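Bench notes, afternoon.
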Amino acid sequence: MAAKTDFKRFSAFLGLNFVLSLLICSYFLFFTGGHPLELGFAAVALVSNTAMLYAAAALLAAPLYLLARGPAAAGALLAALQLWLVLDAAIFKLFKFHMNSMVLNLFLTPGGLESLDQGWGTKALFLFLAALFGALQWLFWRLAGRWSGLVGGRRALLAAGLLFAFLLADKGLYAWGSLYDSTYITRGSRLFPLYQPLTIKKFAVKHLGLRVDQEVRGGIDLRYSGLDYPKAPLAVKPPAKPLNFLFIVVDSLRADMLTREVMPETWAFGKKARVFTNHYSGGNATRFGIFSMLYGLYGNYWFPMLGERRGPLFLEQLKAQGYDLRVYASAALTFPEFDKTCFVDVPRAGYYDRPAGANGIERDS
């Protein structure tokens, strides 16, 4: 009987922490665009994602509770989780990304935090929050003792069923949104920490017989966009004689390789074209380099552009002026997701990204 009572109290303890985490993660809702579909999805994903976090937390907290014969160790773990969520929200507010390996490296590497030159106010706030969440664990354990009687079989099943329904709704909505490129849903994949999106496009085509439109549906009502892009409407005056544009992009090519000896044909072509010798890549990865070249933005804007399926203004203007846009690539444009970012405005008929060849060398040639 005592073991059953302890289990109920521990369950109530987890439930109180779950509600607190739900309140903390509600902060991320302020970063939605305000479209009704997006708000509905975000609300469902909020509950679903927090429930998944607590499913993982419970797997760690339960053994600690049993082994330590008390709530201290489990409470410390849950207090750390609450503190992590607050820190993650602060990072997201500043940089629009969540706690990741780069941030963890900053915290764990000796001298990392010192490099940020934190003031005493920041340190005091951190200590205050740590103490606050520790005190709340004590309070939650006391309250759990009073309310453990509410954790009955039917109530527990009802709560579990409700959370599972939120999980199904969340993953189902995202699967539908990714299937039909609903930007009001797809951009929500980066809204919550450790969110796991579900995509079923290949499964739907292969096993359900759905004929998914291969054209990516770019575009979003700018009233609900999370991007201030462009900062001002473009003033464009098309030239009397339109110019031809040809970008030759070679992944990982060093700038000093464009010589008569190494690349004679391309070098000769450059003599008849305009060569930009002062261009710097926007990142050390393919997606960020191509992205910054076409958008003129820093690489970290890749993710919000991907979420909203927004193409670069450069290609948008060329398309508006009647240019025939085509992309020739030796690898599929679906990864990195250039078909949903840089080339979303290029008609799918203009994609030539499946060249013949058994390997990269043959496809490049």
